[in-house]
């Protein structure tokens, strides 16, 4: 631990040590106003009475051969915005980040983005073709793909349209809708380089086209160097087969790059000497700059962070000691530091990063804070291992103008009101 970290740890021990989070210490000494009076009962006289579930045996193991969450968690679901997803030709659902506690997104809650709906593919019939500038074109079955050496890596996938609505202004007042086009999973499959080497890469090859088996046949061009570096062809997500929504039985994962290149239901890989300039890299997924030119092939997802607790969906229950929690990530590699401000960016404190801090994966951060019940402007700002600092929306608009749809990685501001409610605001 460096001196800086030691000082932070000591400071938070000091803050945490003096009073309990629920104010129990205060109840005993009677010296502090409590957030929630019912929690003041420091020494209950008797254990709680048996509830119905404590009085008879519960269900056995036969009624639920595949597990599901408690019925009390029925509100923890992906959500869509009806006006954004008028039909199934183009649809998107958002991860409920406000209800999640770790860096892994549960498979049933991973956001979805489909250009022609969810394809339900039969793995026995699915084939992957590798052709173009290769020595030996290949047509592989899933059984073939499973024979190659396996790798497992944890990475986020974020749609470059995440936060896109906020180029205009704050909209919908929701963590889920403002930031939920991201998920992070432990992916298992084969290195793309392993398969390309099996096919034999011709020396003129520079670009790789990847295409899906959905009816959109969504395709993108990727530089060969990235494909050989860290791209994965995966068939498993968090230890089980991919879900149909995430591209079952086979998808590409392009770590740290915009989600649209991580082609789902992957059926074709073609090597060439230049990009294909497909629909999704010309008419879409480009960024209109202030000078009227369009920036293309803007693959990298730059560093971003957000406070997930509190947030509009999870207001503060009352004044007192709270743990500010959030997530940070960067397409450049690892998160180096996250700073948190309570006053709209005038003063910053470093948050604690939770292990594991993985490359191109979500990283969790926390910071204890005693909220005095006064209005506040909460922000988080990530700095990644390359020294890149997450910009404010004003800084980003200065570079990019306001015609963009994609790549908004600006600092989120949560306005906390006196009653603990939280609002999505942009500072001028
Ligand atoms: N074949 C195919 N691949 C695709 C898409 C698609 O519509 N079809 N959508 C892309 C987009 S825009 C994103 S952001 C990610 C979303 O992945 P997810 O649905 O698993 O979250 O998949 C990408 N891969
Ligand atoms: Mo996307």
Portion in beta strands: 25-35%
Neighbour order of strands in the largest sheet: 4-3-12-7-8
Structural class computed from helices and strand pairing: alpha+beta
CATH architecture name of the largest domain? Alpha-Beta Complex
CA-atom Rg in angstroms = 24 Å
The domain tally reads: 3
Number of helices: 7
Q: Note poorly predicted spans.
A: 25-38
CATH class of the largest domain: Alpha Beta
Work out the helicity level: 10-25%
The N- and C-terminal alpha carbons lie at a distance of 38 Å
Q: What is the fold's blueprint, element by element?
A:
Layout: H1 3-18, H2 24-29, E1 91-93, E2 112-114, E3 127-132, E4 138-141, H3 142-146, E5 151-158, H4 175-179, E6 182-191, H5 192-199, E7 207-212, E8 219-223, H6 224-229, E9 232-237, E10 240-241, E11 251-253, E12 266-272, E13 287-288, E14 294-295, E15 304-309, E16 320-329, E17 335-341, E18 349-350, E19 352-353, E20 363-371, E21 376-384, H7 393-400, E22 413-416, E23 422-425
Parallel strand pairs: 3-12
Antiparallel strand pairs: 1-2, 3-4, 5-6, 6-9, 7-8, 7-12, 9-10, 9-11, 13-14, 15-16, 16-20, 17-18, 17-21, 19-20, 21-22, 22-23
